[in-house]
Amino acid sequence: MERFQTLQQLFKRYRRPGDLVFATVFLLVALFLLSQLGKQTVWASGTQLFAQPRFWPAVGVFGMVGFGTLHFLSSVASDRIAGRWQEVGFWLRGFEFVAWFLGYVWLVPYAGYLLATMGFMAVLTLRLGYRAPKTIGMAVLTGVGIVLLFRTFLQVRLPGGQLYHMLPEGWSSFMLTYF
Amino acid sequence: MELFLSSFHMLARLDVALALLVGSIGGVIIGAIPGVGAAVAIAILLPATFSFEPIVGLTALLGIYGSSMYGGAIPAILINTPGTAVNALTTYDGYPMTKRGQARRALSLAYSASFYGGVLAIICLIVLSPVLAWIAPMFGSREIFLAALLGIILVVLAHRGQVFAAGMLASLGIFLNSVGLEPVRYSRRFTFDQSWLASGVDLIVVVLGLFAISQAFLLLVDKDDAPHAQPVDGSLFSGLKELFQFKRVATVSSGFGVLMGMIPGVGEFTAQFMSYTYARRTSKTPEAFGDGSPEGLIASEASNNAVPGAAMIPLLALGIPGEALTAMMLSVFYVHNVVPGPGLFQDHMDFVVALYIVMLLLNVIVLVFLMFSTNWLTKIIQIPTRFLGVIILTLSFVGVYSLRNSFTDCAVASGFGILGLILKRLNLPIVPIVLGMVLGGIMEVKLRSAMARVHTPLDMVDRPIAAILFAAILLVLGLHIRTLVREHKARQDEPDHDIHDTQTR
Fold first, then answer.
1. Which one, of B391, B252, B268, B396, lies nearest residue B326 by Cα?
2. Alpha-carbon Rg of chain A, whole angstroms?
3. Does B429 touch chain A (CB under 8 A)?
4. For residue B293, is it within any domain?
5. Domain boundary among B351, B383, B415
6. Which conformational region is residue B292 in: left (phi greater than 0), alpha (psi within -120 to 50 degrees), or beta?
7. Which of A22, A44, A142 sits opposite B426 (nearest CB)?
8. What is the tens place of the pLDDT at every residue in B204-245?
9. Shortest distance, CA B64 to any CA of chain A (angstroms)
10. Mean pLDDT within A57-71
11. Residue B432 domain-assigned?
C-alpha cells in the first residue's frame, strides 16, 4: 500500500479485476428492466408526472442505464487488470454457500432450530477443512449459544420443528417454546 | 431540568441498562474482530430488536454503532488490519507505533481520542438541540424532499473515482424501493406477476444480504486466516493525559466529525481525511505522518468517533438517515410507529434527550471496559476467519428468517449476499444501494405531497430552507465539476491504495 500524496487521492477508489464483467452484467440487467418499463408499470391518465406510478421506477431504471453505461464505458476504456476470470470463479464459489444456507433454512421447520443449527455448524465446519474435535465441538457449542440467545432468551419468532411433535407431551411443548 | 428527569426516568429500567451494557461491550468486541463490523452486527440484530420497546432496541443498536470503532482500533494498531472500515486510517500511524514498541501508547491515545470525539459530539448535540427543535418544524415536504435529494447526490459524489458506480448502485436502490404495489393506486410495479414481489423488496432482507450474508460468503470462500496480536503490557490510562498535549488536533478533528456526520451521505471518511490533512498541515512534525505520528492517530480516531453522535441529527430531526447504519435504525422507529422528524423534537423531546444520554453513557462504559480488557480482546481477534464466516452465516439466518419465517426472504437475501460479495471484491460501495432504497422512498412520498401545493417550479424553492437546500445542491454539483476540471488540468500518477477497501465493512 503506497502512501497517498494528496487529499484527492485519498478519496479515490480503484478498479479491481472483474470490473468489466460486473459492469457488463449490470448494464444488461438495467437494459432489460428498461425494456420492461412500459409493461411492468402503469401510466395513470390525468395524474401529474411526479405522482405517476411509473415515475420512480423510471428514475431508478434510467439512472441504472445512464450511470451503468458510463461505468461500462470507463471499464472498457481502462487498462485490463490480470485475473479477471479467476475473480469471476471466486464469485461463483459463493453459490456453494448459498446452497448450504438454503439447505439450513429448509431444515429448520423439520428438525427444529436447535438440532438444525448444531448440525449445520458442525457439518459446515467440517466442509471448510477443520478436523480437530475441539473445533467441531466449539462449532456445536457456538450453535447452542446462538439458539439459547435468540430463541430461548430473546424469544425470536421461529417455527418449532416438526420433530418436536414426536417427543412426549411435556418435552414437546418445552422444546416448541424454547428451542 | 424536568426534561432531563423525564429522560432519566425513561432510561432507569433494567432492560435499558442491559441493552446499553450488551450493546456497548458487544460493539467493542464486534469492532475488534476484523471482518465483522457494526453494519453486520446491526443488520443481524435488527429484527430481534423489533420486539423490544423503541428505547430498548435503539439503545442496543446505538451501543453497537457508537462503540465498534473503539474496538476496531485494536487490530488496526496491533496487526495493521482495521477492525472496521473506518479504522483504516488508524493503521497509518498506529501500526508504525506498534513496530517501534509503542503499542500501549498508541492504543491508549486511540481510546482517549475516540472518547474525546464521542463525548464532544454528544455535547454538540445537546447544545444544538434547541436550535434543532426550532429549525426542524420549518422542514415541510418539499424541504425534506430536497434534503433527501441532497443526501443522494452527496453519497454518489463522495465516492470519488467511482461516481458512475455509486450512481448506478444508488439508482438500483431507488428502483428496488419502487418494486411492488405502489401506495396510491395500488398498481403493480415490476412484479413480473410474482406474488412474492407484490409486497416489494424488504429493506431488512436487502441489508442483511448486502452486509451480513455477503461478509459470511466472503470469509467462507476466501483463504483461512487467524490474525495474531501480541498482548500489551502496562496501564492504558496514560493516553488521557497525553491527549491534552494535542487537544487542538483532537478538538478540530472532533469538530470535523460532527460537521461531516450531520451532512447526509458524507460520514467518517470525509471527516477523517479533513482532520488528517488539517493535523498534518499544522503539525510541527508533518514528516512523521504515516510513520507513527500521535497527532495523525488522534485525528483519525477523534473524527471517526464524533460521527455517530452527529449522524443522529438528520435522522432524529428530519427522519433522513445519512448513512447505512442510521438507515437501519430508521426501520426500528418505523416498526414502532415512532416517526422521526420535526414532530419528534416537538412531542417527544424526552425520548431524544434519553438517546443523547445513552450515547454519553456508552462512551464511558466502553472506555472503562477497554482500559481493563484489551489483552482479552487480542485473543478474540484470533478467531479463524472461515470459522467466523460460519458464525455470521448462522446468525444471518435468525435475522432474515425471524422477519416472516419465509424461505423466499432467505433466498432473496442470499441473492443480495452474492451481489454484496461481488461489490466487496470489486471494492465498489454498498452504502449507495441502501441509501437509494431509504431516501428513494422518502423522496417519493414527500415529492408527491409537496406537489399538491407547487404550481410552478419556482414554488418548490420559495421558502427559505428550501432555497438554502437548493442552493446547497447547486453548490455541491458546481464544486464537483470544478474539482474535476482542476484534476484534469493537473494530471498526475495516482497510487493505488486500500483505504476504501469495502471487504472489511
1. B268
2. 25
3. yes
4. yes
5. B383
6. left
7. A22
8. 899 999 989 999 999 999 988 877 777 777 777 777 788 888
9. 17
10. 96
11. no
Mutate to test the interface with A, among B175, B395, B449, B455 (most CBs of A within 10 A): B175
Is B287 part of any domain?
A: yes
Task: Please tell me the total count of domains within chain B.
Answer: 2
- B112, three cell numbers: 482517549
Confidence of residue A156 (pLDDT cuts 50, 70, 90): confident
| Cα distance between residue B106 and residue B304, in whole Å | 16
For B103-135, the DSSP string reads: HHHHHHHHHHHHHHHHHHHHHHHHHHHHHHHHH
Q: Is the pLDDT confidence value at A1 over 80? A: no
Q: Please tell me the distance in Å from A61's CA to the nearest CA on chain B.
A: 6
State the residue range of the domain holding B342: 2-159+223-383
Q: Which residues 147-166 of A have a C-beta within 8 angstroms of B?
A: 150, 154-159
- Maximum separation of any 2 CA atoms in chain A, in Å: 71
Same domain, B102 and B247: yes
Domain final residue pick, B383, B412, B427? B383
- CB distance B51–A7 less than 8 Å? no
Instruction: Tell me the Cα Rg of chain B.
Output: 22
Query: A91 and B422 in contact by Cβ < 8 A?
Result: yes
The structure's pTM equals 0.88
What is the chain A residue with the closest CA to B194?
A: A40
